[in-house]
Every structure is written in structure tokens, then in C-alpha cells.
Design goal:
The chain is mainly alpha-helical. The protein has a domain of about 40 residues. The chain starts with a helix and ends in a 5-residue tail after the last helix.
Length: about 70
């Protein structure tokens, strides 16, 4: 019976370690997802800013029609 108890406690310790690692993996995944989302938003914002400034420049260069 002592051997079974020892095995059971060692299994419980391993499950605790596994649970801790799973939590670390989940937090790392959440960080990566948030970084990926912010990286997607940043270039989109830059391109829209470039488009609006380009439109303003072309509008300023065209002479007004009479």
C-alpha cells in the first residue's frame, strides 16, 4: 500500500507541474495574440494616414477650376 501511495503522490505532483506549465502556455499565447493584433492594426493605421496625407497633397497641388 505504501508503494501505491507514493506513486499517487508523485502523480499528483506531476499534475500540479503540468497545470502550472499549462497556465504559462496560455498566458504566453494570449500575449502573442495581443501582439499580433496590435501589429495588424499599426500598419493599417499607417497606410490610412498615408492615404489621407496623399489626398491632401494632391488636392493642394491642383489649381482651382473657374
Amino acid at each position: 500500500m505504501a508503494k501505491a501511495d507514493k506513486t499517487l503522490t508523485s502523480l499528483q505532483k506531476l499534475y500540479e507541474k503540468r497545470s502550472a506549465l499549462d497556465k504559462q502556455i496560455v498566458t504566453a499565447e494570449k500575449k502573442l495574440v495581443s501582439e499580433a493584433k496590435s501589429a495588424e492594426k499599426a500598419p493599417a493605421a499607417k497606410t490610412t494616414a498615408k492615404k489621407t496625407t496623399a489626398k491632401k497633397k494632391t488636392a493642394a497641388k491642383k489649381p482651382a477650376k473657374k
